Amino acid sequence: MVIVSQQPDSKRIQGEIAREIRLTLAGNKLWSREDQLRTRLMDQNCRILIILDDVQKALDIKRLGIPTMGAQKTLEVGMLSEEKAWILFRQKVGNFVDDPSLLDIAKKVAKECKGLPLAIISVARALKKS
User: Do residues 117 and 86 lie in contact, with contact meaning Cβ atoms separated by under 8 Å?
Assistant: First the structure.
């Protein structure tokens, strides 16, 4: 999973993907890094799900080195309402929010996730483990 944000940085995005698949990108040229990444991602022995989060404008994923041939679906995950976000947060965090002293903090944390399902799930799981 890579957070793209408003000002996408191609080298950073490539670097984060490469790090997750344990690939060391040689060189500094975007096209070279693109080729290395594409070669690794198209390896027939690996199945990789790439999630690009917080994409705010069109992004040319081919120029990043992300092949699209094997993609079966492209999904846009919308934001959840505050109520649905809280329900998802409670489901993922478990008994943590049953403690009355933690309820207000848990609601604030859930609200900070701005209705983004991936953020809610990630934060809730981290809290559950602590």
Answer: no
Q: Tell the residue number behind the tokens 């309402």, with chain if given.
A: 81
Shortest CA distance to 48 belongs to which of 56, 37, 59? 37
pLDDT in tens, 17-74: 999 999 999 888 888 899 999 999 888 777 788 888 878 788 888 889 988 776 666 6
Find, among 44, 52, 51, the residue nearest to 70 by Cα. Answer: 44
pTM, rounded to two decimals: 0.57
- Residue 52, beta-bridge partner list: 2
- Measured in degrees and rounded to the nearest 5, phi and psi for residue 30 equal -60, -40
Query: Which of these, 106, 119, 103, lies nearest to 53 by C-alpha position?
Result: 119
Whether residue 84 contacts residue 121, with contact meaning beta carbons closer than 8 Å, is answered with no
